[in-house]
Amino acid sequence: MRLSAPIYRLKQQARILARRNALPLHAALDRLAVDEGFRSWSHLATTASARSPAAVILSRLEPGDLILLGARPGHGKTLLGLELASCATQLGRKGFFFTLDYHAGEVAGLLSMLGINPAPEPDGTVVDTSDEVSADYIVSSLKRFEERVIVVVDYLQILDQKRTNPGLEDQIASLRRYVKAEEAICVVIAQIDRSFDLSGRPMPEMSDVRLPNPLDLSAFDKVCFLHNGRIQIDQAA
Q1: Which residues on adjacent β-strands are paired with residue 186?
Q2: Is the pTM of this model over 0.85?
Q3: Distance (Å, rounded) from C-alpha 118 to C-alpha 123?
Q4: Residue with the larger pLDDT of the pair 152 and 230
Q5: What is the pLDDT of residues 154-168, one digit of tens each?
Q6: Model confidence over 128-147: pLDDT tens digits?
Q7: How does pLDDT run across 216-235, given as a tens digit for each residue?
Q8: CA distance 107 to 113
Q9: Distant-in-sequence, close-in-space partners of 79: CB < 8 Å, separation ≥ 6
Q10: Rounded to whole angstroms, how far apart are CA atoms 30 and 26?
Q11: How far, in Å, CA of 224 to CA of 188, rounded?
């Protein structure tokens, strides 16, 4: 059974329903769950989490993977990236989320939307919103930790926006060397070109990844595309 909207959006709808009808939040959640065809919200959440995009990706990750995660705006790629970083402990790893697109308050809001209450460091996911984020910065930051890691980078197209940073090709090569040497896992979020919206295809393809600067996408081991709550995972080459 497919949900009418991603689970975080259903939670938002439940909050609105609770306010409008003076309902306890748990009652509003249960009402929405019944509308979706489930017995209760806990039934929906348990079923959905088992087949969620994050669960699908986690089941396919391998040490040394460099993964591209692409979607159009509004389809949840940043939320999915945060969820992957927050679920790193499921694979016995430490999670990191590096972003050039959001400040700390916005990331906290996104985590709240996901229903995630991050544990404080050093045990919790590390969120870094520095303007200095680049491949060299990421690798240097990770060298301070001995644990195996899952790293999420948000996002590909602005890694080389600062002129003092190396080109995109060099940065992805640097990340690839790091994940192979350390058996890390790195997910790089990427924008999909708006021309995809007019293509009529159900899912993006490699040719739809927006590349303002040259980059050989075969540097990635796997590519994940997210669209309308569905996910497709392929080998890059």
Answers
A1: 66, 151
A2: no
A3: 9
A4: 152
A5: 999 999 999 899 999
A6: 999 999 999 999 999 989 89
A7: 999 999 999 999 888 999 98
A8: 10
A9: 6, 8, 110, 113, 114
A10: 6
A11: 10
* pLDDT category of residue 1 using cuts at 50, 70 and 90: low
Q: Which residue has the tokens 């089941």?
A: 59
The per-residue DSSP string of the chain comes to ---SS-HHHHHHHHHHHHHHHT--HHHHHHHHHHHTT-SSHHHHHHHHHHTSHHHHHHHH--TT-EEEEEE-TTSSHHHHHHHHHHTGGGGT-EEEEEESS--HHHHHHHHHHTT--PPPTTTS-EEE--TT-SHHHHHHHHTT--S-EEEEEE-GGGTT-STTSPPHHHHHHHHHHHHHHHT-EEEEEEEB-GGGGGT--SS--GGGB--SS---GGG-SEEEEEETTEEEEEE--
* Sheet containing 230-235: order of strands: 126-128, 94-99, 149-154, 185-191, 66-71, 222-227, 230-235
For residue 11, what are its two tokens? 């939670």
Contact 188, 66 (CB under 8 A): yes
Query: Contact 66/72 with Cβ under 8 angstroms?
Result: no
